Every structure is written in C-alpha cells, then in structure tokens.
Amino acid sequence: MLEALDLAKRGSGDVEPNPRTGALMITDGEIVGRGWHQFYGGPHAEVMALQDAHAKGAKPDTAVITLEPCSSQIGEGGKKTPPCTNTLLAAGIRRVIVGAMDPDPRHRRRGLLALEQQGVEVVEGVLADRCLQQNQTFLKWLNLDRPWTIAKWAMTLDGKTAAPTGESRWITGIESRRRTHELRARCDAVVVGFRTAQIDDPELTVRHVFGRQPVRIVVDPRAEIDDDSNLVRTANKTPTWLLVADDVDAARAGHLQDLGVQVIHVKVAESPRHIHLREAWRELRRRGLRRIVVEGGGGLVADLLGWSCVDQVQCFLAPKLIGGRTAPTPVAGEGRAFMAEAWQVSEWTHCVSGDDLLLSGFLP
Ligand SMILES: NC(=O)c1ccc[n+]([C@@H]2O[C@H](COP(=O)([O-])OP(=O)(O)OC[C@H]3O[C@@H](n4cnc5c(N)ncnc54)[C@H](OP(=O)(O)O)[C@@H]3O)[C@@H](O)[C@H]2O)c1
Hints:
single chain; binds NADP nicotinamide-adenine-dinucleotide phosphate; Cytidine Deaminase, domain 2; elongated; 12 helices; alpha/beta; 2 domains; nine-stranded mixed sheet; Dihydrofolate Reductase, subunit A
C-alpha cells in the first residue's frame, strides 16, 4: 500500500481537484503492474496498472488500490467510462486490497459490494487515514457549494502583473499563453475584474488551442463596462455575464442586456461596499458552473481570497523586471498585517513553461 500511495502522489501536479489514487497489480506476490490517476477525466489508477501488467504479458490476480474502485457508469466530468469494478472482474482479479472508501457518500462501499457479490476477496481499510488524507483537496471539491476557483496570473520576477502604466502585454511567452488557453478550455468560466476589462480590453476566448469556450464573466458592480469593449461587442456570439450590485442603475443594466450581456444582480456587502462575492459565487454554482479560472486583476483576487473563494493558484513567472512602486501586483487589497496571517499555499509544484516557470498550489 505504501508503494501505491507513492504512485498516487504523481498525479498531484495537475490543475484540477483530482482523486489521487495509486494501484499495483500482483501475480504470485510479485508486482507486475503500476498505475496512478494522472489527470482529471483520465483513466483511473487500477485501469492504468492493469494496462501496465498486460503490456508485460502478466495476468495479475490481486490488486492493491489506495481508493475504493468506482462502480458507476458515469465517471468524472460526466464522461461515460466502464466502472473499474467491471474492468477488474473482466481481468480475472480475485483479491482486492483497498485503502480508503470512496469519499463520495453516494458511492461509498458500492464498489466493494459489487466485487464481493462476484466472489472477489476484499481487504479494506489498509492505511485508510493516509489514503484519505491524500485526497483532502478532492474531498473539498466534492463538498463545495460554489465553483472550484483557480486564480491565475502572470508576473515578472519582481512580482508585477503590469507596468506602472497598467499595460501588461505580454509578460509571459507563447508557451505560457498557450497553457492559459488550455486552462480556459477546461473551465466553465473565465472571470476578470472591472478594471482589467477596462484596461486590457480582453477577449477571454480560447484561441491557441482547440477546446470549448467558457462563459466570460466580469465583476463590474456599477455596470461600467464599455459598450465598445471586445467583451460587449461579441456578447451575442460568446456568452458574457456581468456580476453587478443589486442597486445598479436599471436603465444601464437593461441596455447591456439588449446588447446580449447577461446581467446578474448580487447583493452588496456592508464593508467594504463591494458585491458579496460569496453570494455571487454560489449563484454561479446554481447556474451550473463547477470550475472557473479568475484571471485577475489584483483587486478582484484579493477580495476573493477575503471571501475564501480561491481554491488553487497558478502563477506564471517570467524572467523580466519592470519595477515601479505603483505597478499592479497579483493580490492587491489591504493585505494581511503579519506574515503569520499569510494565506498558506500547499502541495506546491513547479514546472518549466517555455522561458517561464509555472508555479501552482492549493489553498486550504
Ligand atoms: N498579468 C496578469 O496576469 C494580469 C491579469 C489581470 C490584470 N492584470 C493587470 O492588472 C491591472 C488591473 O488590476 P486591478 O486590481 O486594478 O483591477 P481588477 O481586479 O480587475 O478590478 C478591480 C476593480 O474591481 C473592484 N472590485 C473588486 N472586487 C470587487 C467586489 N467584490 N465588488 C465590487 N467591486 C470589486 C475594485 O473596486 P475597488 O476600487 O472599490 O477596490 C476595482 O474597482 C491592469 O493593469 C491589468 O493589466 C494583469
């Protein structure tokens, strides 16, 4: 089980909450196949381990899996994949050693029951706490009443997200921008703050990769977005939502609706007089958004952190220095008063992205 747990860790560099599972296939006490769940929507660990064993011509009889095998037809992301229990039975597995139960209460122990009913010997609860601990992020994702939120930004080596003039094109190289578009295509929405919409006039479309277009959302309490902006001009073609304060000027909101923008009213929090982002985020979930990427600016990200609405961060670090006391930074707002109060990022990973570095991690 310890080796299966080590395999499960390999899946942790991914950008989404991902059930982290590892699996071993065994014949006559010898490990003949290894697998782990590599990315959201990808084959599960036991399927990978079976493929590994079969590729070596082995016919395993025992499986060691950190998490209970799934027994339902619909996998993550709504994809139709055969249940892993069926795959294990078809492969002739007669003994299954499992770490933790499925954290999803709708499925818990159903997989094991399906195996037992077919006469498979099941040993459960081996290092269960450690196997579950490895899936804390996935557990959080299961229980969220708002979309999983990734805050993504690009910054220079001196921590600036734009020049002191506000101009920010481009900080990173083409590979990092391609990755950003890939991330957009894997999310249900891409969100920016009002000032970013105003200064950058972004399109927020998926361009450098092939993929589906997420909804575009602007947090714009007073509905100040320009009628001639790229977002409003193309709102009839690409879904564009505006999160506005509930006391916004009705004529202005109506005008934007006429231009094809979907205006969503959100109540205003007491202090600071900002829209209540937690309420707004719940509303986005009610409207079917499960995973969103927030692409700045620092004002919006700071507010979201304050509302505990950020789950993951992705920072592209470019080998440039821009300087300037007033140049924007990725997290603005009031900030925390002391280091001991800093938001702590965990499961910190990094990889090279062209000439840049991509740093990512999770918030508790
Ligand atoms: N490099 C990058 O990755 C990147 C990404 C995006 C943007 N940028 C740069 O960042 C700069 C813009 O950043 P920014 O921080 O000024 O702007 P922003 O975050 O896009 O927007 C800030 C505005 O939104 C308001 N706001 C934030 N949260 C709110 C809430 N809950 N309710 C109501 N209003 C809320 C702020 O109000 P208050 O004024 O009342 O606080 C402020 O007016 C631009 O120069 C842009 O180029 C860089």
